[in-house]
């Protein structure tokens, strides 16, 4: 067997084993050294290949697709700095627990550290930000090496999903010639008895031990002021279980917008979504002091909630993690429960007594929440505000679609203004590392799942990742972008830095003064500007009738926006405290 045949069969067996394990999508960043992987992935009948030229954009595209589909997605790039451009998305995937399989082509060993072009150190180049690293052997076509190729593919796929999901890197040293022979017979190794990896998986669900469940229910059953908190997580089935637990125990559920609890058909009568507005007041935080807190998912977006738990650091706090990890920046004493969150809810329901008498506690949270919602959802300004943009999206976003949200002000406004709805809308955001890079590409990648996406993004995040629009144009993906343009970093207007008038604009405001309609023209987008909330909703409805890329710009003023938000918050807290008299 010559080298070209060995290269072909070795690489094809690796790819086919990924397909056997459930891989359906690969994002390819074009290049020379990755030719074997690129061509063979593209040839496989059960793989959908997406060609994204810019590597940083490609990696975030893969991240968005993997996040939306909740299954591993492969990335392929050539050697050199191409792989380095994947780094930000790999970091985000690690912290947000998204399964990515990064396949980096490399120079063979004899061309490393000798001045060969496009040769950098790629061994464990992502450090501790990948769950597993493996460098493949130089391709060989023996039965033993084809079996090895399949074994490593199966292992790599498994590592992206085992425990907390996350990224994996497999490095491929390829010698020239690089072009595989796709005319060879049976390159996929269809004789599975001869070309099997010998690896299969069965995974169970983690339950709490019966004695642990009894211990917890005894503690919780003796308390009247319990609190369930749901932070960012991706399991859309979880909402039903946690809301059933809340109903059984007659206690409130604080639901972060990324918890997938605010949306869907489940019973949301005890869901509190306006807590960020009224927990800004220290007196209210003290009045709502709980007896215990059970948190599911990552830390909520709300900084007011962070103040709340820090001030009640002695309150028993329990954090449910499905597999492993310690996600609690408050520094409080915490009991970690490592078990499937849905099963934890079910077990606590099964062993606990009938509905508890916590009516007064629950009623107070519901009353404050209703006051917050009345103020947050009332009125319409002559010029649309950033909060109104979220209200408009929430009102008209179609059922069975996704809302992808940028960081900084965008996710905070969604936290404040996107209330509960019976629509099945998944709300996604890159909250692992909380960066503003790659957001557009992530949203476009989510749209590649086949479900329409609405992206809410600020002008700085949009500027960082305009390259991401190319894939939307290239594949005519159904995405509507609501571009909130306040000409800079709007979130800094809410922070102490805003008091430094001398340096604020240059260092924090950072206006870019760009006519973004030119970007829309460049990438073939349907581009409009909305002046009011009503106008925005009309333009959103029109965009949802189009199959391709639509951009709706909302122009706001950073200073006026901060004042508008503070006025809303002040009215909410004032009305709540007036009710105490």
Q: Give the total of domains.
A: 3
Q: Taking all residues together, what is the mean pLDDT? A: 94
What share of the residues does DSSP label as strand, in percent? 15-25%
The CATH fourth-level homologous superfamily of the largest domain: Thiamin diphosphate (ThDP)-binding fold, Pyr/PP domains
Q: What is the third-level CATH name, the topology of the largest domain?
A: Rossmann fold
Q: What is the CA-atom radius of gyration, in angstroms?
A: 26 Å
Overall form: globular
Compute the number of helices. Answer: 22
Q: How is the largest sheet built, in terms of strand order?
A: 2-1-3-4-6-5
Protein name: 2-succinyl-5-enolpyruvyl-6-hydroxy-3-cyclohexene-1-carboxylate synthase
Pathway: Quinol/quinone metabolism; 1,4-dihydroxy-2-naphthoate biosynthesis; 1,4-dihydroxy-2-naphthoate from chorismate: step 2/7; Quinol/quinone metabolism; menaquinone biosynthesis
Organism: Oceanobacillus sojae
GO biological process, one term: menaquinone biosynthetic process
């Amino acid at each position: 067997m010559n080298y070209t045949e060995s290269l072909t069969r070795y690489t094809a067996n690796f790819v086919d084993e990924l397909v056997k394990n459930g891989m359906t999508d690969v994002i390819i960043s074009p290049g020379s050294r990755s030719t074997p992987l690129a061509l063979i992935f593209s040839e496989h009948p059960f793989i959908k290949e997406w060609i994204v030229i810019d590597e940083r954009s490609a990696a975030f595209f893969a991240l968005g697709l993997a996040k939306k589909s909740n299954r591993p997605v492969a990335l392929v790039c050539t050697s050199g700095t191409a792989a380095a451009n994947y780094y930000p998305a790999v970091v985000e995937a690690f912290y947000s627990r998204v399964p990515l399989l990064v396949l980096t082509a490399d120079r063979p060993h004899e061309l490393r550290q000798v001045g060969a072009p496009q040769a950098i150190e790629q061994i464990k180049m992502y450090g501790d930000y990948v769950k597993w690293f493996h460098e493949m052997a130089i391709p060989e076509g023996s039965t033993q090496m084809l079996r090895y190729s399949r074994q490593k593919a199966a292992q790599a796929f498994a590592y992206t999903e085992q425990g907390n999901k996350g990224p994996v890197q497999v490095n491929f040293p390829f010698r020239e010639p690089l072009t595989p022979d796709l005319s060879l017979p049976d390159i996929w190794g269809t004789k599975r008895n001869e070309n099997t990896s010998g690896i299969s998986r069965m995974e169970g669900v983690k339950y709490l031990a019966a004695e642990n469940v009894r211990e917890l229910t005894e503690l919780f059953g003796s308390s009247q002021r319990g609190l369930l908190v749901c932070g960012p997580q991706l399991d859309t089935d979880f909402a039903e279980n946690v809301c059933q637990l809340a109903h059984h125990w007659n206690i409130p559920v604080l639901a972060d917008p990324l918890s997938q609890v605010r949306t869907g058909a489940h019973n949301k009568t005890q869901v509190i979504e306006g807590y960020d507005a009224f927990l800004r007041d220290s007196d209210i935080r003290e009045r709502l002091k709980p007896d215990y807190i059970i948190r599911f998912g990552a830390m909520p977006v709300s900084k007011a909630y962070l103040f709340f738990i820090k001030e009640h650091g002695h309150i028993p706090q329990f954090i449910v993690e499905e597999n492993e990890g310690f996600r609690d920046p408050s520094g409080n004493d915490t009991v970690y429960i490592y078990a499937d969150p849905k099963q934890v809810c079910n077990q606590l329901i099964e062993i606990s007594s009938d509905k508890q008498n916590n009516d007064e506690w629950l009623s107070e949270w519901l009353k404050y929440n209703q006051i917050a919602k009345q103020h947050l959802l009332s009125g319409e300004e002559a010029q649309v505000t950033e909060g109104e943009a979220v209200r408009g999206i929430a009102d008209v976003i179609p059922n069975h679609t996704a809302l992808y949200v940028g960081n900084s002000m965008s996710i905070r406004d969604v936290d404040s203004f996107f209330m509960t709805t019976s629509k099945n809308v998944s709300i996604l955001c890159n909250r692992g590392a909380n960066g503003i890079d790659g957001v557009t590409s992530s949203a476009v990648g989510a749209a590649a799942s086949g479900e329409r996406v609405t992206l809410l993004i600020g002008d700085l995040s949009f500027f960082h990742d305009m390259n991401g629009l190319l894939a939307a144009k290239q594949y005519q993906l159904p995405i509507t972008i609501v571009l909130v343009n306040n000409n800079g970093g709007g979130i800094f207007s809410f922070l102490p830095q805003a008091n430094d008038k001398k340096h604020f604009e240059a260092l924090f405001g950072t206006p870019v003064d760009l006519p973004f309609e030119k970007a829309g023209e460049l990438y073939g987008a349907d581009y409009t500007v909305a002046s009011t909330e009503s106008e925005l909703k009309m333009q959103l409805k029109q965009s949802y009738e189009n199959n391709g890329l639509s951009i709706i710009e909302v122009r706001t003023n950073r200073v006026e926006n901060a004042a508008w938000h503070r006025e809303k918050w002040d009215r909410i807290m004032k009305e709540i405290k007036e009710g105490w008299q």
